[in-house]
UniProtKB/TrEMBL annotation:
Keywords: Membrane, Transmembrane, Transmembrane helix
Domain VWFA stretches: 115-285
The keyword Transport appears for this protein: no
Region Disordered, residue ranges: 394-425
InterPro entries cross-referenced by the UniProt entry: CLCR (IPR051266), VWF_A (IPR002035), vWFA_dom_sf (IPR036465)
Biased composition range(s): Polar residues: 416-425
Protein name: VWA domain-containing protein
SMART domains according to UniProt: VWA (SM00327)
Organism encoding this protein: Brevibacillus fortis
Annotated transmembrane regions: 45-63, 84-103, 307-331, 343-363, 369-393
Lineage top rank: taxon: Bacteria
Keyword Membrane among UniProt keywords: yes
Pfam family, one: VWA
Length: 425
C-alpha cells in the first residue's frame, strides 16, 4: 500500500552526504582545475557527490527502514550495496560529464571577437630573471594557439611603453607568423618598471577598438608606485579581466601589487619560480580566457550574460538532480521511491541550478557558499518528496526479487507450484 511518509533520518543523512560531497568537490576544484579537462572534472565532481548522498541515504535506511520496510532490510540490503557505485558514481558521473561537454562547447558566436592584450615587462631586471627571453617565447606560443576569431595586442614597458603590435585580428596564419616574428626578434631593453604606464597603454589599445570581451595579461618581475583604485577603475567599469604573472622570488612587493590587480579585476595571479614555466602559464591563461567554463563555477568572458548558457546550466543541474533521485530508487529497488525521488531530484536540481546561475560571482568565498547551498538543496529536497508522491514498502521493481527467486532450489519452487495447484482445486 502506498503512503505519504518521510524519513527524517534519511533527510539528515542525505544532507550530511551532500556536505561531504561539497567538501570533496571543493578540494577537486582547487587541485584539479587546469590540470584535467573540465568535462572530466565535472564528471568526477558530480559522480562523487552522488555517491556520498547515496551512501548516506542507504545507511539511514539500513538503520531505520522507514521507507522500504523491514523486509527490504532482511532480504535485499546486499543487493542495494552492490547497486550503490553503479547507480551513483558511474551513472550520474557519466551523464554530468556529457552535460559539461555541452555546457563547455562554443555553440554561440560571441558578439565581437575576444581581445587579448599582452603587457610585457622589458625592464633591466628581466635580463637576469629571464636570461633566455622565455617571456617572449611564451607570448609567441600563446599567439600561435589563439583562434582566428580573436584579436591580439602586445605592449612592452619599462620606463616607457611601446606598442609592439596594435590590436589586430588573427585572421590568417600569415598574420600570426608576422606577430610571432616581432615577438621573437624583440631586442633587449633596459630601465625601470612603470606598471602604471603599462596599464594605461593596455587600456588605450582597447579603447581605440572595443572594450567588450577583453582580457589583459600583465607580466612583470618588479614593483612601481601605483594608485590602484584609480588605475583599475576603467577596467572594472568595463568588466575587463586582468590576469597577472609575477616572480615572488625576485620582488615580494611587486608580487603583492600584481595579486591586488588581479583580485580587483576578477583575474588570477600566477607565480613563476623559473622563467621556463612561462609558456605553460600563458597557455593556461589562454585556456581560462577562452574555455574555462564549468557547471559549478562563475561564467566569465563573452558568454557571461548568455541566456543560452544560463538555461543550459540550469537544465544540466536539473537533469543531474533527477538522475540522483533515480539512482536512489535503483539502490532501493523500489519503483515508487524511484518515482518520488526522481521528481524531487528534478525540483531540487532546478532550484540548485538557479542558485548557481544567479549566485556565483568572482569572489571565491562567496562562490563556495553558493555551491554549498546548491549541494544542500539538491540533497535535502529530493528526500522530502515522499510527502507528496506516495511511496510503498512493498512496491519494488522486483529486479532483486527475481534474482532472489532464481536462487531458490527446484524443490522449493516445485513445492510452491504444487501448493498453488491445490489452492486452485
Amino acid at each position: 500500500m502506498s503512503q505519504r511518509r518521510v524519513s527524517l533520518l534519511m533527510l539528515v543523512c542525505s544532507l550530511v552526504g551532500g556536505v561531504i560531497g561539497f567538501l570533496v568537490g571543493e578540494v577537486m576544484l582547487a587541485k584539479l582545475s587546469g590540470e584535467i579537462p573540465q568535462w572530466l572534472l565535472m564528471g568526477l565532481y558530480f559522480g562523487q557527490y552522488a555517491f556520498f548522498v547515496g551512501l548516506m541515504c542507504l545507511i539511514a535506511e539500513m538503520i531505520s527502514p522507514r521507507l522500504n520496510g523491514d523486509g527490504w532490510k532482511q532480504r535485499y540490503l546486499g543487493f542495494s550495496w552492490k547497486m550503490l557505485v553503479p547507480s551513483t558514481f558511474l551513472m550520474v558521473g557519466v551523464v554530468a560529464l556529457l552535460l559539461q561537454l555541452l555546457y563547455g562547447s562554443s555553440f554561440q558566436q560571441a558578439s565581437g571577437a575576444n581581445n587579448i592584450v599582452m603587457v610585457l615587462d622589458t625592464s633591466g631586471s628581466m635580463q637576469s630573471s629571464d636570461p633566455d627571453n622565455q617571456l617572449f617565447k611564451a607570448a609567441a606560443d600563446m599567439v600561435q594557439r589563439m583562434d582566428s576569431d580573436m584579436n591580439i595586442a602586445v605592449v612592452t614597458f619599462h620606463d616607457q611603453t611601446n606598442v609592439l603590435q596594435p590590436l589586430t585580428e588573427l585572421s590568417s596564419q600569415s598574420v600570426k607568423d608576422e606577430i610571432v616574428k616581432k615577438l621573437l626578434q624583440y631586442p633587449r631593453t633596459d630601465g625601470g618598471t612603470r606598471i602604471d604606464l603599462a596599464l594605461q597603454a593596455g587600456l588605450d589599445q582597447m579603447q581605440a577598438n572595443q572594450m567588450a570581451n577583453s582580457t589583459v595579461v600583465l607580466m612583470s618581475d618588479g614593483y612601481s608606485d601605483l594608485d590602484v583604485p584609480a588605475a583599475l577603475a576603467p577596467y572594472r567599469q568595463n568588466q575587463v579581466i586582468v590576469h597577472t604573472v609575477g616572480m615572488s622570488q625576485i620582488d615580494a612587493d611587486g608580487t603583492a601589487l600584481l595579486q591586488k590587480i588581479a583580485t580587483e579585476t576578477g583575474g588570477s595571479y600566477f607565480n613563476v619560480e623559473h622563467a621556463d614555466q612561462m609558456t605553460g602559464i600563458f597557455g593556461q591563461i589562454y585556456d581560462m580566457s577562452r574555455t574555462d567554463r564549468n557547471i559549478v563555477s562563475e561564467r566569465t568572458g563573452a558568454t557571461e550574460e548568455s541566456m543560452f548558457y544560463a538555461i543550459t546550466r540550469v537544465v544540466s543541474v536539473l537533469i543531474i538532480g533527477a538522475l540522483l533521485g533515480l539512482a536512489l530508487g535503483l539502490i532501493f529497488d523500489n519503483r515508487h521511491l524511484a518515482k518520488s525521488f526522481t521528481i524531487g531530484g528534478a525540483v531540487s536540481g532546478l532550484l540548485a541550478g538557479l542558485v548557481l546561475e544567479m549566485g556565483l560571482s568572482s569572489i571565491d568565498l562567496l562562490d563556495m557558499v553558493v555551491r554549498l547551498l546548491a549541494c544542500s538543496l539538491l540533497a535535502v529536497i529530493l528526500t522530502l518528496f515522499t510527502l507528496f508522491v506516495p511511496a510503498s514498502t512493498s512496491g519494488g521493481s522486483s529486479f532483486a526479487k527475481r534474482r532472489l527467486n532464481s536462487r531458490q532450489s527446484p524443490r522449493a519452487l516445485d513445492a510452491g507450484n504444487q501448493s498453488s495447484k491445490r489452492f486452485d482445486l
